[in-house]
Amino acid sequence: MDSLTTIYCKTPSGQNEIDQRSSLITARQRSLLIMIDGKKTVAELAQVIDPAQLEALLTALLTHKLIEVLPEPEIQPQTTEYPDVFILPDM
Question: How far is C-alpha 85 from the geometric centre of its chain's CA atoms?
Fold first, then answer.
């Protein structure tokens, strides 16, 4: 199974599948697709869906390109901002 911390999100095709209800996927796959919100981890999904079935369901949705792994946010290096430096005239 994928890492328990993996987060999936719907692709545009996945959202279209929810909106249009085509016969492309099974009822169990549709239920999982609805639950995938870009916030829940695989561990959280496994609390609702039998973990023994979860991997196959995720694989089917990935194969149909209805979901994708949510990219981890890029961590920007923190820069220290210094206030403007003022040069004082000689006194």
Answer: 44
